[in-house]
Structures are given as C-alpha cells and as structure tokens.
Amino acid sequence: MRRSHVFSVSTSLLVAANLLIPVAILIFATGFFPYKPFLPGLAEYEDLEYGSPPAAPFDRLVFMVVDALRSDFVYLEGSGFEFTQSLIANGVAIPFTAHATSPTITMPRIKAMTTGSTPSFLDAILSFDEADTSSTLAVQDTWLAQMKAKDTGKLIMYGDDTWLKLFPGTFDRAEGTTSFFVSDFTEVDNNVTRHIADELRNDDWNTMVLHYLGLDHIGHKTGPRGPNMIPKQREMDGIVRQIYEAMETQPHLQSTLLVFCGDHGMNDAGNHGASSPGETSAALVFVSPKLKTVSQGIKTPADYVEDFQYYSVVEQSDLAPTLAALLGFPIPKNSLGSFIVEFLPFWPDVHDKLQILMRNARQILSIVTATLTSSPGGRDPNCNQPGSASEQLVCEWRGISNSAASAATEIKADDWVTDMSRWLSTAQTMMSSMASNYDMDRLLAGGVAAGVATIAAMAATAMSLQGSIVSLGPFALITILYGVMMFASSYVEEEQHFWYWATSAWLFYLALRRVPKTTFRSLLMAAAGLGMMRLVRGWNQTGQKFAGEPDIVTIFLTTNPSLLWTLVLATYAMVSWELFNGLEGVPSVVSGSVVVGVVTSALSFKLAFTNEDAPELVVGFARTVTSMLNGPSLLTRARAVFTGIGLMSLYPIYLLAVQPSKSSKAQVLRTLHHLYTLLALTQSRTTNAPLFLLFQGIYLFLGKLGLDPVETTTSSLLLQFTSFFAMGGSNAISGVDLSSAYNGVGEFNIVAVGALTFVSNWAAPVWWTSASNLLLLQHGQSARTRSGGGGVFKQHVALLTVFVSISLGFVMAACTVLRTHLFIWTVFSPKYLYSMAWSLGQHLVVNIGVGGLLYWLGCG
C-alpha cells in the first residue's frame, strides 16, 4: 500500500512539473516579448521659423523588394545585376548597404522600413504564422499611410502577402503570394511580374510595392552560391530595366523614384534571422534619371570586402525620413531614422537643407522626450554637467538648434549639416538600443514557475529512482554545466561544442565502465563509439564562429556526389533490411514487395527533390535513375511516400494490439522505429541522410553495453542535442530549415507546415527518442510486473523533466539578468525561443507524449 502511495505521489508531482513548464514559458514570454508602445495618429507638418517644407523632387514611388538581396549580390563582379551596375556607373542610381538589425526576418524588416522604428522581437515569431493578423500596422504612421493621405493616387501591391497582413485595407489593387512555399523559385515571382507592364502604363497610382520571393527561396534551398542564384539575379535585373526604361519613356513616370532593396541578407547556408554580417547587410539602390543631377558615377563592380558593407552604410529605418523628404510628406511619428545626406543636393537652398534636418531632428526628439520620464534638459536645465546619456543628447540638441540660424546666414552650412547628422545618428543609436518595456513581474513569475517545476520534478525523481543516487552524478554535472553556460553569449552561439565533447566523453566512459574485464574489448568498443561520434561531430559546421568552415559535407560529399549517393543508398538499404525483418509474419513475397515499393518511392522522391534543390549533386548513376523515374511532381511523390509509410504502419500497430509477448511487441516497435527513420530521411537534406547510418551504429553500440535506466536517459539526452546540431541546427533563427516544410502540402496549412517544419529540424532528436525507448524496453522487459516497467519510464521522464525545468530556468535567468546586454536580441532571445521549442515540442510532445505511448504499448 505504501509503495502504491509513493508511486501515486511521485506521479502527481511529475504531472504538476510538466504542466508548470508551459505555464512558466507563457508567463515569461508575455513579459519578455511585449509589443513596444507607439505614438498614435499621422504626423503633420509643423510650422517652423525656417519656412515651409521644401518642394519634393518626386511624386511617385516604386518600392521593389527582392527578399534576401544581400549587398554583394548586386555590387560585386560576377553579379547578375549588370544593368543595375551600369545605372550606378552612369550616376542615375545611388547604391547603399542597408543595415538590417536582428531579427533579420521579413515582417520586422518591413516594419522597420515603413515606420522607421525598431520592431519588437516578437515579430520574428509572428513571421512564421501565415494566418496571423494580430501584428498589423493599420493604425500606425508609415510612409504608406502618408502616401495614401496625400490622395494623389492609388496604392498597389504585388508579391509577399506579409504586406497585406501588415497593411489591411491600405492597397487599392493587390495580389499576395505566400512567402514560405520555399520550393517555388519561379511562379512566386511570375505572379508579381505579370502585373508590372499594365501598371506602368496606368497613371492612377502614386505608390507601387513589389516584393519578390524567389531569390530568398533559392537561398534556403541551395545557399547563396547555388546554380539558380545568378539566373534569378538576372531576372530581377531585368525587372529593374523594365521599370527604368518606362521611367525614361512614359511622361507620367518622369518624377518617379524606384527604390530597389533587400529586406535582409542571408548567411553562407542561405538562411537568415540572426545577426551575421551576411544576414544584416542588404542592398539598397535609389534609381531615377533625376539622380544624375545630384550624383556622380560610382565605381562598379565594387571591390570585395569581408563584412558585406559596400558603399555608404545606412540603417533601414533611414528610409522613412528620406522618402518623406523626397516625396513630400511628414516623417512618420515613430521613426528613428536619419535622413540620408547624400540626397541633400536636391535642395541647393541652404534653408531647405536646414528644414529637412531640423524636422528630422525634432521628430526624433519628440520620441526621446516621450520615452524618457525627465523633461528636456533633465536635472540640469543649463546643461553645465549633463548626467545621463539622454540628458547629454538633449543638451547637444540645444547647441545645434541654436546654431541653425547662423548656419543659414554664414558659410557654416556644411559644418552644421555634419554636426546635425552626427546628432541624428547618436539619437538613433541610443533610442534603438534602449531596453524593451519588460514586465519584470512576469519575468520573475515565469522564473518562479520554472523553479517550482524543478522542485516537483526533483522530488518525483527521488521517489521513482531505481538505484543509487550516485548514479545521477554525470547527469547532474551535465545539467549544471549546461545551465551555467547560458550566461555567456559565446557559449550560447557555439552550444554544439558542449554537447559534442560531453557526448564523446560519456561514450568513452560507458565503454570503459560497462566492459571492465576485457581491456582490449573495452578499448575497441570505445574506439568504435568515439569514431562514429567523431564523424557525427564533423558532418556539418554550425554555430556562428565556424558556420562557413569546411566540414565533411562540403569537403567530401558535395565534391564527390558518387560517394554521397553510395552512402544514401546504404542508408535506405539499411532501413529496407530492418523493415523486411520486421514483417517476418508476412509472406516474403508480400513483405518484400511492400518494403521495396515504399522505400523505392521514398528514394525516388529524394532523387527528384535533390534534382530540384541541388542538381549539381545528381550526376552519373543518380542522374540515370532520376531520368528513369521522371514523371510525377514533387507534391505527388511526397504524398505517395507519406501514404505508403502510413499504410505500412497499420500492420505493426495491429500486431501491438494482438501480440501476446513483450518480446514480439518490442520487435513491432523496432519496425515502427525504422518506419519513422524513413520519414526522417524524407524530411532531411540529402547530405544529412548518411548520418542515420551513424546513429544506427551508435544505437547498436549502446545496446550491447546493457545500460541501466539512468545511463539510458543520460545517453538519450546527450544524443538528442548532439544529433540536432550535427544535422546543422543552431541557436539562431537562421538555423530553422524550411526546405522540407511543404513536402506533400499544396497550399499553406499551419498545422501541416508546422508539423513538417518541426520534423525537418528535429528529425534526429525524435529518432533518438524512439531509439531510447527501445533501449529502455530492454530493461523494462526484465520487470516482472507492469508497474515495474512503468517505473522505468517514469524515472526516465522525471530525469528529463528535471533537465528541461532547470535549463529553462537558467535561460530565463540569463535573459532577465542580461536584458540590457548588447546581444539580448541577437543571442539570448533566440535561445529562449529554441528553449520553448525543446521544452514544448521535443520534451512534452515527443519525449513524453509519443515516447510514453510507444513505451506503454511495448510494456502492455
């Protein structure tokens, strides 16, 4: 009775701990990722003592965004933008590098470009939800709202439907295209281009927004140097030519300004979201025949630089005040942008120059005074000894403002412009880097909830522990060391090394400890395990510091496609053999036909997918097989694979319901495990497929060691994280792989795309959850009763819950303590988002939900 009571109490504590984890995550997130406040209403011109607003040189705007257009794509030798480079050389286009602050995701970048403000990091999450309508700029002041208020023409938009979500009801004519269907390189852009010719002939609009997605999709699929990249650049360059030639020849377009830019860049893997130089450096080009009067030809192609900062570097938020002056409307109220001074020659009158910069400065000053609690001048109204940086900023403003009158009458205008530009830049930097409006009560409450979850999980572990508490030493050391790491940005960025070295040391320790009597055998087993682990570690370079360095994939596989496909075929052969053995109760002719049919379907999809994704890898025999299997679309092939896996899984599920012995059920669970392996291979990049051969080898290695439950749980934890990073994962948003998110999906569906995205990115950790269950079942089968087997799994879950709650608490503490840190939005905030995915997706859904179901079926 007492044992039953203890079992019930520990179960209750464990349930409570796991219920508290999502509660803690939600509470902390609502305090850490709030929407920033903004000044409501539209800005209006204020009367200043220096005269009326200067006349605008342009009356019409074409705003063309090429998603992920990194600066070097336009400016370097070998670029497909040859016509654009000729415009720069002739002085009718002025180039810049636009700095995109993290998160380098489309939605926050559009917000920055249209409002001139610094968006909330929460927009990075909302960008992944195509159905979201909560993040809208409908009631905020933007240059789109100002152009609409001018009432000189209609607003039209073609391209990424993020614009339609952000600006509902703003556009008079529009057609959106989904931004996450990354397998589409052509139609997604053709749907934009087909409208351009007609719209250029129309004269009823004053703003046309075009947002092309194909180049970004190519980056996600093949990287910045993929075979489709230069042809896509030439296609976009042709659009620039089409618009520019219309501006030259059509009278109603003579005062049109073309702004041609990227919303962000991309890293060497073709992804974005973080803060590497490639991701934050976007091209920005202003194009118009009128620019010939204010600019000189610039050298093009540009000389190569490592940090992607070509020509003058401006902030994306600088677009708002610059477009305001060039098109003749007030600067949006929430803008922190600084007017780009290269355009000041449009106004030869000194008074006009003063007007533009003074209005820009007063607009930013209004945000400073609205944000800070002190009044202008702070505690030192005479500015003798200004205290805070904000007080010093206001005092500098007074000096520059007082000198404006003399600058207008004396030959001091250039010096005054320099001083004002410097002040604007300082104000912009200070206000953009100010801490978010954190809700400290919620941050602390979330941390407390995580702490309570930890206490409950530790109590449940103590009650369910089968063995000595000393056996928890390695697990406790891993947990504590990992938690402490969360306070160092460099360790968070390069987290993979912790898991690589910890796993290597653990495998060596197991080999020596579990085979103590035969030294040679123990060393041989250790060498085999460590050898496979070394290959896993070197497969993909990830993190930030070494992301572009050589690895096994780049050195051996992409340069030797024959070796790649040999390993891929070996992986699929291994899965086929395991599945064939798992259907031993079925006649060989039937089971062989079924296995061959499903695996051939999966391999056919992989070949066709790779032929679209990276055709340079499909050569020789692979090219011959691809040609032989040519026919169905990728959508049809993917659906065939998923259907085949689903139908094939019905038989082992049926056997689970009728099998009398636990050993038979264990065999059935192994069959389901290998069916999942086939699914994981379908959702993984081709170059990562051979990793599952190594995972299988490590699994067999662990299976021969006869691990106890604590050792199995420790191994599971280490290998889940190790395999995630080995597959190319990271703690940056740019690490999210969307290349397989639409396999088998014809149109956006948040549930299907979300599930496929998770499986794509967590394919290996989920594999190790299943493999760990098989190892646990080996131990659980020795239990004489159902409760004994259940106790093994409960201890497993309790230990994993301890790790999740402690690590989550450390991440929350790091984000709270370091909330004013320089890297809070580039390192620690993305880490918190990944902690959410690990805690909610991998731990609660996979380890407990799926793992618990499979273990219960195996023990039943």
From TrEMBL:
GO molecular function, one term: CP2 mannose-ethanolamine phosphotransferase activity
Keyword 4Fe-4S: no
SUPFAM superfamilies: Alkaline phosphatase-like
Coiled-coil ranges (or none): none
Membrane spanning residue stretches: 12-35, 443-465, 472-492, 498-515, 522-540, 552-577, 589-609, 638-657, 797-820, 832-857
CDD domains: GPI_EPT_2
Pathway as given in its UniProt record: Glycolipid biosynthesis; glycosylphosphatidylinositol-anchor biosynthesis
Compartment(s) where it occurs, according to its Swiss-Prot or TrEMBL record: Endoplasmic reticulum membrane
Keywords, alphabetical: Endoplasmic reticulum, Glycoprotein, GPI-anchor biosynthesis, Membrane, Transferase, Transmembrane, Transmembrane helix
GO biological process: GPI anchor biosynthetic process
Membrane topology of the entry: Multi-pass membrane protein
Residue ranges constituting the GPI ethanolamine phosphate transferase 2 C-terminal domain according to the UniProt record: 435-858
This protein's GO CC annotations: endoplasmic reticulum membrane
InterPro entries attached to this UniProt entry: Alkaline_phosphatase_core_sf (IPR017850), Phosphodiest/P_Trfase (IPR002591), PIG-G_N (IPR037674), PIGG/GPI7 (IPR039527), PIGG/GPI7_C (IPR045687)
Keyword ATP-binding: no
Function: Ethanolamine phosphate transferase involved in glycosylphosphatidylinositol-anchor biosynthesis. Transfers ethanolamine phosphate to the GPI second mannose.
Annotated family: Belongs to the PIGG/PIGN/PIGO family. PIGG subfamily.
Name of the protein this chain belongs to: GPI ethanolamine phosphate transferase 2
Species for this entry: Anthostomella pinea
Source organism phylogeny: Eukaryota, Fungi, Dikarya, Ascomycota, Pezizomycotina
